[in-house]
Amino acid sequence: MKTVLNSHVIIKILAVCSFMLNVIPMSNAQWWKDTEKAEKERSKGMLLLTNEVQIEATQAINHMYNFKFYEAEKEFNYLKVKHPDHPLPEFLLGLMEWWKIVPNTENVIYDEKCLAYMDKSIDKAMKIWDDTENPEAAFFMAAAYAFKGRLHSERKHWSKATFAAKNALKYLDKSRSFSDFSPELMFGDGLYNYYFHYVKENYPLLRPVLWLFPKGDKPKGISQLEKVSYNAFYTRTEARYFLLQIYGIENMNDKALNLAKYTHESYPDNPFFERFHARSAFVAGRVNEAKALSKSILNKITEHYPGYEGVSGRYASYILAYYAYNYDRDIKTAKEYYNKTIEFAKNTGTTNSGYYWSSMLALGKIASQEEDYDTAIEYFKQVIDDTDRKATQRDEAKKLLTEAKKARRKKK
């Protein structure tokens, strides 16, 4: 049976509590002061390490990664009021703006706010550093500069990205004096060790810049990020975000699927994690899992969930089109989803993507099967015109174009 407390009962309880507080000897309340003192000693005066802040920040950070930005912002602003001179709140607010960018990194509308918050975090951290050389301040400067470099590199602002990266490394070194930050610091080391070689292999124009930096170690970088993904508090989910992409780059498909499934289950309304789960299930041949995830993504786009937009739609539509065409032999549904893939790609300016080219190629094949050779030839020509010279879709389109022209001549 539920007990309903009326106002009279509540007043009596409050009165008893007030009485008890008045009769307890002050000496017996000393435990609270002792607890506060012990907490300060344990955290060494570092806000990041205090239990209270970690508890307060945890829920807000979880809201942020689950794309509940309104709830996260309220909590971050509460921390800002409570700790007005500390760089943590501004850094978290900047990180939130970054995650608004993540689903479609071509989206620039959040750039200005993200960079402004990171600059404010750096300013507050710099003041603390100048006054005390507190390694926590150096940690925040390293982190904020790293995120600025991350965004500038997305925008191909290479000079700004290089400047930010050099500052991030400088302050990362200064924060190493505090061993309690080691799991968080390992995040920066891991990223650096891996991406040094990634940049060297994939961005030849940037190779002359790399002499400014120490050499990296790719396997060590992956190992460090894996350790961070289990042991860190603040950078754990960021490490998982990067590991998902690294596992994809390195064709570590089993690891990618396991981690994608875990991160999606942890944050079910995060569009990046859900689409990566769908992609990983697709690569692994888990048909029902990939289908269900893709349908979920498209439903969330229709229902305007935060962050669910055209890039995720392109992934989901292609997966459903592929299965409809190659597994279910459902031509009508396949055409519908291939056309949706193309529409999403055009809306997001990603017509240079593999899913876009493959969709055009598939629609050309379907048109050939339906003996609509004029349409098929147009699709194949467009693939040849749009694709990179080394793309496999281009070679296949050339072969299919020749076959379609022959079939058209025979039909006539």
Characterize the structure shown.
The protein is mainly α and 412 residues long. The chain has 19 helices and no strands. It has helices at 7-23, 30-43, 51-65, 69-82, 88-101, 111-132, 135-154, 158-174, 182-202, 218-231, 236-249, 253-266, 271-283, 287-302, 310-326, 331-347, 354-369, 373-386, 392-411. The chain is elongated, with a radius of gyration of 27 Å. The model is unreliable at 1-5, 13-27 and 29-43 (pLDDT under 50).
Short overview:
By secondary structure, this protein is an all-alpha fold.
Task: Please tag this protein with its features.
Serine Threonine Protein Phosphatase 5, Tetratricopeptide repeat; about 400 residues; mainly alpha; about 75% helix
Strand and helix map with partners:
Blueprint: H1 7-23, H2 30-43, H3 51-65, H4 69-82, H5 88-101, H6 111-132, H7 135-154, H8 158-174, H9 182-202, H10 218-231, H11 236-249, H12 253-266, H13 271-283, H14 287-302, H15 310-326, H16 331-347, H17 354-369, H18 373-386, H19 392-411
Helix pairs in contact: 3-4, 4-5, 5-6, 5-7, 6-7, 7-8, 9-10, 10-11, 11-12, 12-13, 13-14, 13-15, 14-15, 15-16, 16-17, 17-18, 17-19, 18-19
